[in-house]
Write a structure and sequence with these properties.
hydrolase; about 150 residues; 2 helices; Thioesterase; alpha+beta; Thiol Ester Dehydrase, Chain A
């Protein structure tokens, strides 16, 4: 990671595109902060699903939000096609950190960080990280140098 705060990783592990919908627009006629958080959630779920994980756990280790930090750099508007780059970092025994960069046509719209804990929703308690979690998430783009 570069610097402190919301520094970005040298390499991202996953990329997906999202489009700003009418429901995402606030009174300022741009992407609302609540909708921005929903975009982060959608991107994270897509990545986890591509790696064969269910955020809810599906009988094992799910994920629960512990911290969220967002830094806005530009506005986004209805129908904008946004590119979301993501990386996993700060991996611990029972938590991990996701870093996000959302941009549009070469311009950064926002960057974010979520600290997620591994959680068993059935037992309502924290659990250890699945042994193959990092491998499965990062293997998706092993052959992609530009992500």
């Amino acid at each position: 990671m570069s610097g402190g705060g919301l520094g970005l990783p040298l390499r991202f592990h996953f990329r997906t595109d999202l489009t700003v919908q009418a429901r995402d627009i606030n009174y300022g006629n741009h992407l609302g902060h609540d909708a921005a958080v929903s975009l982060l959630h959608e991107a994270r779920r897509r990545w986890l699903a591509a790696a064969g994980y269910d955020e809810a756990g599906g009988g094992g280790a799910g994920l629960i939000m512990l911290e969220l930090e967002v830094r806005y750099a530009a506005q986004a508007f209805w129908a904008d096609r946004l590119c979301v780059d993501m990386a996993v970092a700060g991996l611990g025994a029972a938590r991990c950190e996701f870093r996000y960069r959302i941009g549009r046509a070469g311009q950064e719209v926002l960057r974010a960080r979520t600290l997620m804990g591994f959680f068993d929703y059935a037992a309502r308690r924290p659990v250890r990280r699945p042994a193959d979690f990092l491998t499965r998430l990062t293997a998706l783009n092993e052959d992609t140098d530009d992500v």
